[in-house]
Amino acid sequence: MLVNKSIDIPYQQLPFKGQFNVAPLGTFRNELTDQPHRHDHFQIIWITRGKGRHMVDFVWYEVEDNMIFLLRPGQVHQLDCEREGHFLYFTEQFYFTNKHDKETLYDFTNLFDNWHGYAPITISDHTSTSLHGLISLMAQEKTTAPHCSQGIVKHYLNAFLLLIEREKKRNAAETMMPFTHDARVVQLRRLLEQHYRTEHQVGFYANAFALTPKRLNEITKETAGRTVTELLHDRIVLESKRNLAFSHKSVKEICYELGFEDPAYFSRFFKNNTGISPQDFRDMMFK
Q: Taking every annotated instance into account, which residue ranges of this chain make up the domain HTH araC/xylS-type (predicted)?
């Protein structure tokens, strides 16, 4: 059970100004901190010492020392653990201020993708030392306001993200999970995020790349291990679960919001993908 009553999933507002910040874990707590909530920015939670569990989009993960959780805007999470460490948040607008940034800075959006399934990243002791140094540099630069240089902070953050990506690849190699990158799949994720409520046909997404549906499916199957339809259905099911678990919306309302015209068909779709009906899923969450 996640919470004891159905609520609209809140966006937690942090008491910091600007589009970037770094602070120790535990700096800020309110009534939402230990309840399911989400943020409208990218967030990195680095637990240097911890014990307990952390839920991300309905899956609980056991917390270990030197573990990093990467959260995209809108992902629902809930901390249920003792923890020490750091958190960073930033917006895409902060990181990519202009076209020049797009050409010179690392495209972190792929790092936050979870095509192969979400998983926290275990950090090696060697990398941990480097990350601690970058945290200190970013925090120190922030204290120089109003003379803080956004460019300097972005380059520290750039190095921080690159080190995390290397650790993610190391984790994948140790678990025999492939770690591949295709810019078209990154763009497809963005398209799915924008249109999954209204566009349910593969042809719409294939046309955006001037590809046939068959070819786009081959690309996503090779890179993500899933077809476009499977990726689309995964996203629809996730949003369905979020609404069923954390809102007062009826199944019919959720159905229409996600682009389905027939509530009965939506219920069959949900059951085919989860093994349980929408109402049974909602009831199960609050037993």
A: 186-284
Residue 200 and residue 80 in one domain? no
The residues pairing with 74 across neighbouring beta strands, listed in sequence order, are: none
CATH number at residue 213: 1.10.10.60
Q: Which pTM was predicted?
A: 0.80
pLDDT confidence of residue 10: 53
| Burial class of 216 by CB neighbour count within 10 A (0 to 12, 13 to 18, 19+) | buried
Please count the structural domains in the chain: 2
163 with 24, same domain: the answer is yes
d(CA 179, CA 168): 9
Is it the case that residue 100 has pLDDT exceeding 90? no
DSSP 72: -
Confidence of residue 30 (pLDDT cuts 50, 70, 90): low
27/163 same-domain check: yes
- What confidence tier does 96 reach under pLDDT thresholds 50, 70, 90? confident
Q: Point out which residues pair with 51 in neighbouring strands.
A: 82
Rg of the chain, C-alpha, whole Å: 20
* 76, 242 contact by CB (below 8 A): yes
**Two tokens at 24?**
């120790």
CA end-to-end span of the chain: 7
Question: Please, how many CA atoms are within 13 Å of residue 194, restricted to the half-sphere of its CB?
Answer: 9
Q: Tell me the DSSP string of 122-154.
A: EPPHHHHHHHHHHHHHHHHHHTTTTS--HHHHH
